[in-house]
Amino acid sequence: MKKFLLIILLFSFSKSYSQTATNSGNPLRLHADSLKWVDAKPPMPPGAKIALMEGNPKEAGHFTFRVKLPAHYTIPPHRHPVDERTTIISGTMYVGLGTVVDTSKATRLAAGGFYLNPAGGVHYACTGSEETIVQISSNGPWGSLPPEEKFEH
């Protein structure tokens, strides 16, 4: 099951999501209105959209992508094999730690806010009453698993 979830997440970042090829040392300039949004695949709940901006999350190396989340959207508790660095581009995000979603204990972050979830740390996130866009930047390979499952190396 662990490998299956990781493969599904990595597949969700296949070439069909590719906004650009690996940067290869060339300058890269993107306008927000030119991003190509596609439906996120499991383990993300339905309703989220993803736009890959640079790199390839399933390979070693740096990558950046944006996630568009509808109002009142919840990303259940999960964890990643590498640090997750997230900037709120628009809207509001509530980010909490632990295996139970509890917005009263989550930190509210508005546009311009930033959070870092260390590798292996169990966390969850919820949006407020409006659509929210976040930008995630990290180093691959990337993945996401439920709290009870272990990453295989």
Please name the defining characteristics of this protein.
disordered N terminus, mainly beta, 153 residues, 1 helix, six-stranded antiparallel sheet, single chain
Largest sheet: 6 strands, antiparallel
Please count the beta strands (DSSP E, at least 2 residues each).
Answer: 10
Global geometry: globular
Order of strands, main sheet, comes to: 1-2-3-10-5-8
> What is the H/E string?
HEEEEEEEEEE
In terms of structural class, how would the helical and strand content be classed? mainly beta
Give the averaged pLDDT, no decimals: 86
Question: Cα distance, first to last residue?
Answer: 15 Å
Our estimate of the beta-strand percent is 35-45%
Low-confidence segments: 1-21
Give me the Rg, rounded.
15 Å
How many helices does DSSP assign?
A: 1
Fraction of residues in helix:
under 10%
